[in-house]
C-alpha cells in the first residue's frame, strides 16, 4: 500500500505541472504559432529523455512510437496550445476534468479494467466540484476554445490508455522519449509549411519554453506514464483532477483572481473525488502487490511465487500477461 501511494504522489506531479502549463502558455508564448509552440515543447523534451535512457525503439515500437507520438504529443499539444491562448487558465484546465470518466470507459474497452464503484463515485464527485469551480461567471470562455480543450481531452485519453496497453516489457522513460521525439519530428515540417519561419522569441518566451519542455513535458510525461504503468487507469484519471485545481489556484495566486466560497467548495469536492481513486488496501492485499484495476487480466502465478513486477500484470489484447513472461511483442 505504501508503494502504491508513492506511485500516486509521483503521478500527481504531472497534472500539477500541466495546470501551470496553461498559464505559462497563455502569458508568455506566441499566440499565433501553435504548431511551432507544440514542436518546441515536444522535441527538446524527447531528445533530453532520449539522451538519458540511450535506447532506440525496437520491433513494433517503431510504429507504436509514431502512433502514440501523433496522439499524445502532436495533436494533443497543438490543441492544448491553441486552447490555452483562447481560454482563461482556470477554464482551459477545468475542461480536462472530464478525462477521468473518459479514461475509465476507454480502459474498460481496451485493457479490460472495469471501473470500480469508488472510481465512478470519485469521478462524479470530482466533476461536480469542477462544475462549481467553473460556473462562477468567468469571463473570456469562448466556445472554440472549449471545443479545442475537449478535443485535446478525448485524444489524450485514448492515447494514454493505448500507451498503457502497450507498455509491458518496455522501459517507461524510453517509451516516453520515443513518443515525444516522434511527435516533435511530425510537427516540425508541418509547422514550417503552415506557419513559415520560426517566431522570434524574447528572453521571457525562451525561459517559458524551457519550463514547458523540461517540467511540464519531460518530467510530467515521465511521471504520468509511470503512474499508468503501476496504477489502474481510473486512479490515474482521478489524480488528473489536480490539473484544474492547479489552474484555479494559480489564477488566484498569480493573476489576482478572487477565490469565492463556491470555488472553495468545488475545490474540496475535487480533492475528495481524487482521494476516492486511491489504491484500495484490501484489493492490493488480495492481489499481493498488484494494484486494483488489473482484475480479470492478470492471474496469480503458479510457477513463480514472487509478486508481479511493475512491468507485468498489464492486460493485452484478449490475453493475460503472466508473471515472469513478457508479451510476445514486447521484446
**Secondary-structure-derived class:** mainly alpha
Quaternary form: single chain
Indicate the proportion of strand residues. Answer: under 5%
Rounded mean pLDDT score: 77
- How do the SSEs run, as a string of H and E? HHHHHHHHHHHHH
Which sheet architecture does the biggest sheet show? none
Structural Rg: 19 Å
Spans where pLDDT lies below 50 across 5 or more residues: 281-331
Question: What report would you give on this structure?
Answer:
With 331 residues, this protein is mainly alpha-helical. It is 69% helix and 0% strand. α2 (34-53) packs across α3 and α3 crosses α8. The longest helix is centred in the middle third of the chain and has 28 residues, at 203-230. The chain is globular, with a radius of gyration of 19 Å.
TL;DR?
69% of the residues lie in helices and 0% in strands. The chain is mainly α.
Task: Name its key features.
mainly alpha, 331 residues
Q: Which helices and strands appear, and what pairs or packs with what?
A:
Blueprint: H1 2-28, H2 34-53, H3 61-86, H4 89-95, H5 99-110, H6 117-134, H7 143-166, H8 172-195, H9 203-230, H10 233-239, H11 242-253, H12 261-276, H13 281-286
Helix pairs in contact: 1-3, 1-4, 1-9, 1-11, 2-3, 2-8, 2-9, 3-7, 3-8, 4-6, 4-7, 4-11, 5-7, 5-10, 6-10, 6-12, 8-9
